[in-house]
Design a protein that fits this description.
The chain is built from three helices and three strands. It is of the alpha+beta class and 83 residues long. A three-stranded antiparallel beta sheet has the order 1-2-3.
């Protein structure tokens, strides 16, 4: 299942996720810090939602209350709720 998430409070405009059950098959960030987000994308592919949430939930970017990794957790949550 593919899902597009409109981010809130970060530089990336939106995130495309592809899920197979609770496993993240693919992720694409649009906008934001390209190199860092490519690295995060590569590291989390194949991980379960629970694993990703454990590692990325609550991460902040500087003074912001969220970050692109934290928004990825939100994107996956929405995608799974939307099935």
């Amino acid at each position: 299942m593919s899902y597009t998430y409109k981010t809130r409070g970060v530089c990336a405009a939106y995130i495309d996720v592809e899920m197979d059950g609770n496993i993240l098959k693919d992720v694409q960030f649009h906008g934001g810090c390209h190199g860092n987000l490519q690295g995060i994308s590569s590291l989390v592919k194949g991980m379960s939602y629970e694993q990703i949430k454990e590692k990325l939930d609550g991460i902040r970017c500087g003074y912001k209350s969220t970050s692109c990794p934290d928004q990825l957790v939100r994107a996956i949550e929405e995608a799974m709720a939307d099935r």
